[in-house]
Structures are given as structure tokens and as C-alpha cells.
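wait is this the right file?? whatever heres the structure
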């Protein structure tokens, strides 16, 4: 049978849908469910699930069911037909069928390519129990004018008291408040009897009066119904637990540390069955995963708005429209009056949102109420959880998210650490700045007060010109080559610009190859400086090899590999990233292979062949640029002079060798330690500058009489030859280090 996602989990315990699933599973009729791609049907783009039911299971499948994720098995149609944009090819059908047939064996073989997409679950694993966590009703007791009116007009009181006599007796007490039920009833009873009325002593009458007087108060007296503690319906929490989890154990470990007076009523426990979408989860990164409930607590306590004269008790309302635009609860509107559905309290540091749309509230946000989910991150890992939840692929309009589904979401455990949290803080803050800047750029042309058509026409033309400027400014943000041109060290930035402005396929290919080699050269210079520091100097062994005849692409990739294989803690912490598997080294190796296979071809190549080379080469160069984007945060600074101010303060004046423009950006800043003039430095660990001499230098070229950046190209014993992008050379003498016996 082919269904959408609803029959998997719609309906709580005891509902018709849950009972149907229960009957199917408990009678061992469910053999398997296959998750298929979306956009397979003509009239809807929803994802579908293929249910397989049988009463003739193989012995190895009895008491179990197979869940197979085949969502990625599809081909794109050349032409859409309605909502149908995908189809499953015959070879994919055969692969899915064969995998399902061998699912039991595959589920036990971690090395099988389909292992992560096959689950073999026992029937009991589809069951869960819904328990209700109750907390006592606490209240104080008040006599108001409204209470007196109801005592004189409503049953059962109007048949007991005289209206005028009761009002006269209770009038002096109006506005009084009592902490306990007995105290309140005792005062009222005495006042009524003093007025000549009788006070019934039946339990039903006493309870009716106390319910009329009581006002919920979190610090008030615990209310009882006879000998049993009365539960507060506004504080009740429904929690879904796996069938094997003991409710009392859950109460002891998870609830009572926060609410010591909570309890579970066994009579309210209900058993349900569902096929959670979490069972179809496939990890696309090589990390251990665990459920969200291990790293965040779902806020289930509700706030009931009374709708009094202060609106919703003065609460501020955080809606989905304000989620990303407001940084303080004080800027939110008041909660709507007389809202029947309770709302959830949220504070600064909470994670608030819906599927695919989450935000970590600022620490000083304050308090507000919301109808969205509220999570309390554990151990300060809110930014990673926010980023991960916002990356979830489900369509928020097609997924009926429940608290249990939310807390079952799998999160990557290996990324939950302080370093990633700090990195994501910078990422998310920059993202918000971009959004804030964009919101004030190019507003609606009719949003102003202009009424004159001619002037309005001029404003629209001006907006069109500004739009062109914005497009130019956004190019570096959208294009990795543009970002490199603006922010990377000069050697890479200049080569990125040469590639960007090239038009002919041959120029583009040459520009890509030079840019790839430039990335390798800059990384090689940094890696070589670490090797020099590790070995105590620029030894003969480091100067040997290809550096004797002139550095090539292969020279720099060899140096990078030597660094990656030998050093664990470089002075430049970001440089350790080149050790990552599948990172910059793989991208550079791919560029080198393409260079060697096409750049030295015999004869003249046709234009379409060169265009094909460009298409093949560009993704690898872009990958190298994006993988080495940390270079933008580690600028190369050329110190022209260092001025002494006092024993712990120095003034540095020089140029930052960043961006493609030949006129480098000047800087003038203070330093706590002296630096040698006419040297290039890169910020290292703890802010300690790393000197790149003698591998990089800025010098006035004797041929063109302009300052140029020179990088090491060749070693001839104690003579080093550095070369600029203009193919100009600079020779310096750098003695070999003294050998220590």
C-alpha cells in the first residue's frame, strides 16, 4: 500500500489511527516500510511510503519489521508533469528490491553500502507510553465584589443566603485575602452567622465556596479534594516515553530535580504505536549521533493568560513574525487578551521556533510567552543545536511536528564542543548583521510620502541605480572568487581578480591554473615557515629538492604534505586544517592532476575542449578557495617601522597585504612587543605574530620602482631567490643555521 507520511504517526494513544497501527504490529502483519522520494506523483509533491503487509513472514523476520530509506533513489525528469518531477529508474528499482530482500543480512553488516539506510526493528520498538506529569494546584483565597455577586446570584448559594443580608455581612471583607482554605472559610462563616444567616456545613457546599474564592498562586496552599492532592490542569505535562522506559524512573531522574512535588497517575497512562520518521534518518556526516533530548530540555509548562486589565497579565508575546527581528522582550507587543490556548514561557538563552525556523534568543532577551516550541540547551550548546535544527531537510509545512518527534531528532555529537560553539557565534552574528543591513536597503519605492509623479519617477530611477551598486557589492558575498579578491592575502587575491576578468576560455583556464598554484604557494610558504621553526632554522634539507631548481606546483604540495604528516601543533592554529581528510590537499591534488593531463598537451586544442577543461577545473579551484577561507581571517601585515613608546608599548606602522588592489591598506596600531621592521607577519596562536622572513618580503622593485610582494621561488645554497607576480626577482642572502654537536 502506498501512503503519505500521516499513517506513520498521526494520532495519539487510544486514537483510531494508533489503534490500527497497534493491531497491525501486535498481530505481526507489518513486514516493512520503504521511504520513497518526493515529487513522484502527478498531483502532489509529498513524500510517500510503501507499506508491505503479510501474514506469511519468514522465520528471521517474525516479530520484526524492516524500514528502508530509498529517498535518494530517483532521477530527474527531463520535463515535469504537474507535480511529478522525479522518477525511479529500473536499475534503482532493482537495487531497492534487492536491498529489501536481503535487509536482515544487511542490517547486521556495517560494511554494506546500504547498511545506514536499513533498520530491522522489533515490534515492541514501535510502542510508546504517554504519561501525564501532574503537579499540585496551589492557591490563595480572595473575596472580591465579583465573588460577593456570585454568592448572592448563583446556585447553590442563592437558595441558602438572603441576597441583601449576605451582601451586608460580606461587604466589609471585600478585598480581603487569606493564605489557607480553612482560614478563608472560617472568616466568611463567622461574618455570615453574625449577620443572622446560617452557614451549611456539608463538604459539597464548603468545596463550592472555596473554588469560588481561590486564585492560582505558585506560592499558595496545596489544594486537596478529600485526601487526594488536586492537580493543576495548567501545569500538567504529557510526555511520550519508549515502552521499555519505566515511568517512575523517568519521574525520579528527569522531572523531580526540577519539580519535587510532581507525580504520575498510573490511571492516565496510555499506550500508543507509531513509526517514527527518526527511524529513517541517515547520517550524511561521519559523526556519532544521539537524540536531541540528551542535549536540550523541552519546556512543557504552560502559562494561561487571564486577559485582565493589563492585557495578558502583562506578558509580552513572541510570534513567528517577530522571532528574528526583535532582540528584547520589551520591544514585543503584549500577549493577546482572552487567549484560550495556554502559551509557553521563553527567556534569554532559550532556543525557540518551529521546524526549519529556529533562533537562539540573546542572553538579555528577558521573558515572553510564545506558541512555538521552547528548548533549554544543556551545557551551553545552543548555537550548534540552532544551526543543526535550521538545516533539517523536512518541509515545515508538510511535517506535523510533535514534541516527541522534535526530541527524537538526531544531532551530531562530535560537533558539540566549545570551539564549534564559538565559531557559530561569529557566523550567526554576521548573518544577523547582513539581514539587518539588507532590510534597510532598497525599500519599497511607494513606502515614502512622495506624491509628485515626476519626483517619484526620479526616485525609482535612483533606486534602479542603487540596485546595480548593491549587486556589485553583493558579488563578493555570493562568489567565492569575489571574496578571495577582496579579503585573501594579496598573492591569491590578485590571481583571483585575473581569473575573474578573463573572457577567453584559454585565459580562463590559465587563470584557474595560476590561481590554484597561488593557493598552493601561499599555503606552502606558511607550512614551510612552520617546518623551519620546528627544525630550528632553514636547514639544507629544507632548501633541497625542487627548491634548488625553482618551485613548482608539486613543490608546494610536497611541502604541504610534509607539514601535514609531521606537525601536530603549528604556531598558526588554522594551518592545522590542511591535515583534514578530504580537505584542501585533495582539492589541490585534483587541480594538479588536471594541470598535468591537459596543460602540456601536444598541438593546438579546440575552443570547446578548453571550455570543457574550464568546467572541470573550476569546481576544484572553488573548493580549494572555500576550504582555505580561514586565510581571510589571517592577514599578512608588512611592518614598515616599529616605534618605542614605553617598556610594554610599541607603535606599529605598515601595510596590510590583503585584497587585489596594488595600493595596500595602511595600518597604525599599538603592540605589547616589538616587531622587526621590513618584515611580514601573520597572527599566530594567542595573537603572537609569526615572522615569514625569509620566505616572503616586500621590497621596492628596481625595475618598476613600485613596492611588490615577493615569495620564495628558489634556493641556491645561502642565496634565496624570491619572485613577484610580475615575474620580478629579489635575491637575498640567508646563511644556513649553525650545526650543534
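ok assuming it is, sequence goes like this
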Amino acid at each position: 500500500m502506498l501512503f503519505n507520511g500521516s499513517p506513520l504517526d498521526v494520532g495519539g494513544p487510544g486514537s483510531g489511527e494508533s489503534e490500527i497501527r497497534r493491531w497491525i504490529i501486535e498481530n505481526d502483519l507489518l513486514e516493512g516500510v520503504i521511504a520513497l522520494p518526493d515529487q513522484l506523483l502527478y498531483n502532489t509533491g509529498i513524500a510517500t511510503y510503501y507499506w508491505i503487509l503479510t501474514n506469511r513472514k519468514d522465520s528471521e523476520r517474525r516479530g520484526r519489521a524492516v524500514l528502508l530509506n530509498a529517498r535518494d533513489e530517483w532521477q530527474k525528469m527531463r520535463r515535469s508533469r504537474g507535480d511529478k518531477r522525479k522518477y525511479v529508474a529500473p536499475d534503482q528499482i532493482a537495487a531497492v528490491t534487492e536491498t529489501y530482500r536481503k535487509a536482515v543480512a544487511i542490517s547486521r553488516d556495517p560494511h554494506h553500502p546500504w547498511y545506514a539506510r536499513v533498520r530491522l526493528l522489533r515490534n515492541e520498538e514501535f510502542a510508546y507510553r504517554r504519561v501525564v506529569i501532574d503537579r499540585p494546584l496551589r492557591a490563595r483565597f480572595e473575596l472580591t465584589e465579583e465573588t460577593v455577586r456570585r454568592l448572592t446570584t448563583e446556585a447553590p448559594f442563592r437558595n441558602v443566603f438572603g441576597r441583601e443580608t449576605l451582601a451586608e455581612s460580606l461587604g466589609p471583607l471585600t478585598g480581603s485575602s487569606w493564605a489557607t482554605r480553612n482560614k478563608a472559610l472560617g472568616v466568611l462563616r463567622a461574618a455570615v452567622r453574625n449577620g443572622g444567616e446560617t452557614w451549611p456545613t456539608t463538604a459539597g457546599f464548603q468545596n463550592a465556596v472555596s473554588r469560588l474564592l481561590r486564585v492560582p498562586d505558585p506560592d499558595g496552599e496545596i489544594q486537596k479534594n478529600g485526601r487526594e492532592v488536586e492537580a493543576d490542569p495548567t501545569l500538567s505535562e504529557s510526555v511520550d516515553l519508549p515502552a521499555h522506559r519505566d515511568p517512575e524512573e523517568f519521574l525520579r531522574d528527569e522531572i523531580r530535580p526540577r519539580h519535587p512535588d510532581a507525580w504520575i497517575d498510573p490511571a492516565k497512562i496510555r499506550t500508543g504505536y507509531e513509526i517514527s520518521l527518526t527511524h529513517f534518518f541517515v547520517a550524511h556526516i561521519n559523526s556519532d549521533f544521539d537524540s536531541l533530548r540528551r542535549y536540550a530540555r523541552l519546556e512543557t509548562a504552560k502559562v494561561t493568560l487571564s486577559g485582565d486589565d493589563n492585557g495578558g497579565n502583562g506578558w509580552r508575546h513572541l510570534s513567528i513574525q517577530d522571532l528574528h527581528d526583535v532582540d528584547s522582550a520589551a520591544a514585543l507587543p503584549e500577549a493577546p487578551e482572552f487567549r484560550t490556548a495556554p502559551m509557553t514561557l521563553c527567556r534569554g538563552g532559550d532556543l525557540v521556533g518551529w521546524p526549519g525556523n529556529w533562533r537562539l534568543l540573546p542572553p538579555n532577551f528577558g521573558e515572553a510567552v510564545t506558541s512555538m516550541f521552547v528548548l533549554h540547551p544543556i551545557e551551553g550548546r545552543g548555537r550548534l543545536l540552532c544551526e543543526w535544527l535550521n538545516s533539517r531537510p523536512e518541509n515545515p509545512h508538510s511535517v506535523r511536528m510533535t514534541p516527541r518527534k522534535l526530541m527524537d531528532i538526531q544531532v551530531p555529537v562530535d560537533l558539540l564542543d566549545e570551539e564549534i560553539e564559538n565559531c557559530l557565534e561569529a557566523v550567526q552574528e554576521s548573518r544577523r548583521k547582513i539581514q539587518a543591513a539588507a532590510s534597510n536597503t532598497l525599500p519599497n519605492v511607494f513606502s515614502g510620502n512622495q506624491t509628485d509623479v515626476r519626483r517619484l519617477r526620479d526616485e525609482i530611477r535612483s533606486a534602479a541605480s542603487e540596485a546595480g551598486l548593491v549587486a556589485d557589492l553583493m558579488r563578493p558575498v555570493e562568489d567565492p572568487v569575489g571574496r578571495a579578491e577582496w579579503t585573501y592575502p594579496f598573492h591569491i587575491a590578485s590571481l583571483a581578480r585575473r581569473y575573474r576578468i578573463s573572457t577567453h576560455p584559454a585565459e580562463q583556464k590559465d587563470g584557474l591554473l595560476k590561481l590554484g598554484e597561488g593557493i598552493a604557494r601561499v599555503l606552502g610558504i606558511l607550512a614551510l615557515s612552520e617546518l623551519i621553526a620546528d627544525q630550528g632554522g632553514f636547514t639544507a634539507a629544507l632548501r633541497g629538492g625542487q627548491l634548488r631548481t625553482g618551485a613548482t606546483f608539486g613543490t608546494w604540495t610536497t611541502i604541504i604534505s610534509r607539514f601535514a604528516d609531521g606537525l601536530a601543533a603549528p604556531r598558526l592554529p588554522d594551518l592545522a586544517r590542511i591535515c583534514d581528510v578530504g580537505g584542501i590537499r585533495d582539492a589541490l591534488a585534483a587541480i594538479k592532476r588536471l594541470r598535468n593531463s591537459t596543460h602540456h598537451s601536444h598541438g593546438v586544442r579546440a575552443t570547446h575542449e578548453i571550455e570543457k577543461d574550464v568546467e572541470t577545473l573550476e569546481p576544484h579551484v572553488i573548493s580549494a578557495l572555500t576550504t582555505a577561507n580561514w586565510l581571510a581571517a589571517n592577514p599578512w601585515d608588512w611592518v614598515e617601522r616599529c616605534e618605542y613608546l614605553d617598556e610594554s608599548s610599541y607603535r606599529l606602522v605598515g601595510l596590510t597585504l590583503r585584497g587585489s588592489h596594488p595600493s595596500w591598506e595602511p595600518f597604525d596600531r599599538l603592540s605589547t612587543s616589538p616587531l622587526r621592521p621590513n618584515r611580514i607577519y601573520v597572527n599566530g596562536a594567542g595573537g603572537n605574530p609569526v615572522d615569514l622572513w625569509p620566505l616572503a618580503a616586500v621590497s621596492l622593485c628596481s625595475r618598476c620602482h613600485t613596492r611588490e610582494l615577493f615569495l620564495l621561488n628558489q634556493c641556491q645554497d645561502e642565496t634565496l631567490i624570491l619572485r613577484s607576480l610580475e615575474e620580478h626577482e629579489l635575491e637575498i642572502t640567508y646563511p644556513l643555521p649553525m650545526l650543534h654537536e
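The chain has a mean pLDDT of 86. so i think its the right one actually
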